[in-house]
Amino acid sequence: MKLKEILKERDLSQRELARMTGLRPNTISHLCSDNVDRVYLSTLETVCKVLEIDIQELIEVEQSSCTSNRSMYVKVANKFKR
């Protein structure tokens, strides 16, 4: 997840993003952490809409899981294409 870097580039705090999205600050904090293992698709959609980015800009797929999760990633990515 690249959210922490995106916020830094845009000079936005986690608290500001929480306010803009209506998500709980704890949720934003979790998305900015290094160990995001689960997240609701609706949460990703909300963040992407508010930041006006595509999901590919927000998430990164680790090489080891790329093969097994590729079809799932493509389905998710296609759902959020503009």
UniProtKB/TrEMBL annotation:
InterPro entries: Cro/C1-type_HTH, Lambda_DNA-bd_dom_sf
Protein origin, superkingdom: Bacteria
Domain HTH cro/C1-type: 3-58
SMART domains the record matches: HTH_XRE
Pfam entry (one): HTH_26
SUPFAM superfamilies associated with the record: lambda repressor-like DNA-binding domains (SSF47413)
Gene Ontology MF term list: DNA binding
Protein name according to UniProt: Helix-turn-helix transcriptional regulator
Organism phylogeny: Bacteria, Bacillati, Bacillota, Bacilli, Bacillales
